Amino acid sequence: AAGRAALEAYRGKESVTKSGKKIILAANIGCPEDAEAALAADCEGVGLMRSEFLYLGRDSLPTEDELFESYKTVVQAMDGREVIIRTLDIGADKQVGYFDMPPEDNPALGLRAIRLCLTRPILFQTQLCAILRASRYGNVGIMFPMVTGPDELHRLKEALADAEDVLIARGERFGPYRVGVMIETPAAVFMSGELAGEVDFFSIGTNDLTQYLLAMDRQNPNLAPFCDPHHPAVLRAIRQTVERAHQAGCTVGICGELAADEALTEAFLRLGVDELSVAPSRILPLREKIRSLTLG
Ligand code: PEP
Ligand code: MG
């Protein structure tokens, strides 16, 4: 791989192989301040805004206006590039004191992400209204984490429709926007055919997908000798997900750590993955890798 200065040669270039296969190279960000670093790294969009960071490091809930301003800052900074905002993924490894979560024996399998949001409708509606309001300032995708199947998706879409109704009643404008789900539970992989027919995009969360497929805690360092991030089950799950998504006209990104793994870049391109979303510092190195590949 090239050194820092040599990488600069890839700034402003397309993320395309020698044989013309294109892919979107997007950034993973946490807070609005990260948008600057992502742009400085020449991202082609935000593939994952981990919006739980707007709830962490404070002692009370952010208001709808506070959330709206944060999202709007990112959406405007990206100037037409898509910004995929993930709804709250609190729980498991991301705990917030003021949420008063009941103690759980297995937080990674507990009341987290959409499960928490669906049990706290006001919390969820506040966030959805803020995201929808930001959607009129650029190109927004709304993404739901930890989905396991269509029934949950229907409940999530109902909550989204309710948030739209609230904004319409207030006379506020929003949209258009895309809707997507994270594929990060084994159930979502098995249900990907059904899910693909009902959303615009998938984003494969390989951090959780690997943890749940292999039944290995992603935070437990003692498991390192056992955890193979290239486990054939993970790669097979990705392949199945991409095939089913594309059959239904749904786009697919990868936003977990594996997206930046250059040993797999060629495989991802061959599968037809539409977007890789990575830490900003990985964008130019990955573009160099993509532009070095000849496919087909
Ligand atoms: C993932 O699970 O792969 C993911 C991108 O989300 P997080 O790491 O925030 O759980
Ligand atoms: Mg995850």
Q: What this model shows, in words?
A:
- It is a single chain.
- The chain has an eight-stranded parallel beta barrel, surrounded by five helices.
- Helix 3 runs parallel beside helix 5 (121-134).
- Helix 11 (265-271) links the parallel strand 7 (251-254) and strand 8 (275-278).
- It is built from twelve helices and eight strands.
- It has helices at 4-7, 34-40, 64-77, 114-119, 121-134, 150-170, 186-190, 192-196, 206-214, 232-247, 265-271, 283-292, and strands at 24-29, 46-50, 82-86, 139-144, 177-183, 201-204, 251-254, 275-278.
- With 296 residues, it is α/β, with parallel strands linked by helices.
- 40% of the residues lie in helices and 14% in strands.
- The radius of gyration is 19 Å and the shape is globular.
- It starts with a helix and ends with a helix.
- It binds phosphoenolpyruvate (PEP) and magnesium ion.
- Phosphoenolpyruvate binds at residues 48, 50, 89, 184, 205-208, 255-256.
